[in-house]
Design goal:
131 residues; single chain; 50% helix; 3-stranded antiparallel β-sheet
């Protein structure tokens, strides 16, 4: 790895942001819980809110048409060029299946109630969510 140090300015900014973390996490919990209730999920993360859909690429395109940006996260390592030829530990098919169906919804502490409701409404309208 690399040995890196923060500058004094970066450290001051980081310390200020850390003071906001409890409030940020409270808001994220509220959003997560509202998503869980709407979608019948039991996600526990405060970092990403992932759902599973029947057609990931089509779902993302339809959400984008509603001005809602979704993400694709955690591409399986064995699909990267750097890992070609390395043995795959675990269930390769399960990981690839999860990758094909997983979408990350907008999930950040500054989302308004209206934005959260808009995401929920769009997901419900588009459909295709898997349990």
């Amino acid at each position: 790895g690399y040995k890196r140090h923060y500058t004094n300015l970066q450290a001051v900014l980081c310390m200020a942001q850390l003071k906001k973390l409890p409030a940020m996490n409270r808001r994220r919990r509220k959003i997560r819980d509202k998503y869980n209730k709407a979608f019948g999920y039991d996600n526990t993360s405060l970092y990403l809110y992932r759902i599973y859909v029947e057609n990931r690429d089509e779902f993302i395109k339809k959400m984008a048409n509603k001005n809602i940006t979704c993400g694709v996260h955690f591409k399986p390592l064995h699909t990267f060029k750097a890992y070609k030829g390395w043995p795959v530990l675990g269930d390769k098919e399960l990981v690839e299946k999860a990758y094909r169906y997983t979408v990350s919804l907008p999930f950040f502490d500054t989302m308004t109630r209206e934005e959260v409701d808009e995401v929920i409404g769009a997901v419900e309208e588009i459909g295709g969510i898997m349990g």
